[in-house]
Prior knowledge:
This protein is α+β, with helices and mostly antiparallel strands. The protein folds into four domains: 5-91, no CATH class; 108-203, 2-Layer Sandwich (THUMP fold), CATH 3.30.2300.10; 207-320, Alpha-Beta Plaits (2-Layer Sandwich); 324-436, Alpha-Beta Plaits (2-Layer Sandwich), CATH 3.30.70.3190. The protein contains 14 helices and 16 strands. It has helices spanning 5-16, 21-26, 37-56, 62-77, 81-91, 111-124, 140-153, 161-174, 233-244, 284-294, 312-320, 341-350, 402-407, 417-421; strands spanning 131-137, 181-182, 189-194, 199-204, 207-215, 220-221, 231-232, 249-254, 263-276, 300-309, 326-335, 354-359, 372-386, 389-397, 413-414, 425-436. The strands form three sheets. Strands 5, 8, 9, 10, 11, 12, 13, 14, 15 and 16 form a ten-stranded mixed beta sheet that branches. Helix 3 packs antiparallel against helix 4 and helix 6 (111-124) crosses helix 8 (161-174). It is elongated, with a radius of gyration of 34 Å.
Amino acid sequence: MLDVSLLEKAIRALQQYSLCDHCLGRLFARVGYGLENFERGRALKDSIYLLVHYKLRLVTSLEEQKRLIELVLRLAESGHEPSLRYLNDSLRMNVEVKPCAVCLNRYFYKIDKLVEAALSKLRELKHEFRTYYVGSRVSKEVTMREVEITTSLGIDTAESIKRELNRLVGKRLRMHLYGKEFRRDNADIEIIVDFERDQVEIEIKPLYIYCRYRKLYRGVSQVQLRLNVVTSVQKVLNETLGELLGAEEVIVHASGREDLDVRMLGNGRPLVIAFVRPVRRPEPDDFKKIAEEALRDAPVELNTDVVKRATKTDIVKLKREANRHSKIYRVLVLLREDVTEEQLRSLESYFRNRQIVQYTPRRIKRKPQHKKRTRTVYELRARKLAPRLIELLVRCQGGLYVKELVTGDYGRTSPSISDTLGVEAIPIELDVLDVLET
């Protein structure tokens, strides 16, 4: 035998609230694969009506008849047409349909009109897109009433009204957006349908590109933080790729950063470029060609061997893993006194897999001075170029302040090259030779 508890829940819902077909059906959205909520709601009302009508032919108790008529009345007040006709034709009762307790009958009839408005905006849109997502806005009071009703009835099969509206709008849009793909995550645009204001907004999502950048000259910062910075990676990308793609702005999210006077060489530093509201959205292969041409004479270049589409999640991952990368630096160091080859070999031995304790360097004002960090130097190679002039190759954990590793920063970094050699050491050139994603 079939379990009729579903009908009993629907009856209890209608006895307490006037619910349209959509809002009744949505209480049981996880029941009945392939049905829309309004179809579920109508089927439940029809089933209840059939059972009531059948029982009315059998019962003789006036009290029971009154109870059954009361249930038909609840169906009629919710807009159920057969119940309205029955009460009018058989009992001469003219019943007034009540507004739905959830949506107040204010939303679902607007769908076709708002879909047409969305299509009109999309036809006028100059921005390229291949994927789209649909969102909706309803009043906070509606969502609160929905939660209250679902909770009070103890229903665990419901879905939200926003989810239903999104799906219904999306289905209608899909019939017109040939060649476009609906995507829940990381869509190119979001079509926002405001059911309160009867408006449609098109939100252009950023284009995220993962790659690596190289800084070929000194005097180039990563971002334009200070007025005295002549140029930066961000500025170069804004004025070249940003303009070519018609983006309002270019924002760079890098795995760590190097100082203004430091070159970034080798394979480049991992980077996610966010193009804000771009008109063009080239695929990675096309982006490579555009980048190579646009940055031909620029002080910054992109490693186009690793170009791929990215997401906001990749930015979080990039930041989180910055300290897990190991980096290789080249440092040109001027010493106050000359040192021997034996001292350099001893220096190499001492700094093999050596932990370094550092407090925020005095030159960095944007971070608390008392902040402490511990990083590891995995390997160090030293070579004398001239009296009092040495070259260091340092492979270390990401986040190590290499300049302070050399100077000691008045005891804020320990151990340091200066302390270990017993000679004041000054870094005069610094290059990042590689960033290793391990």
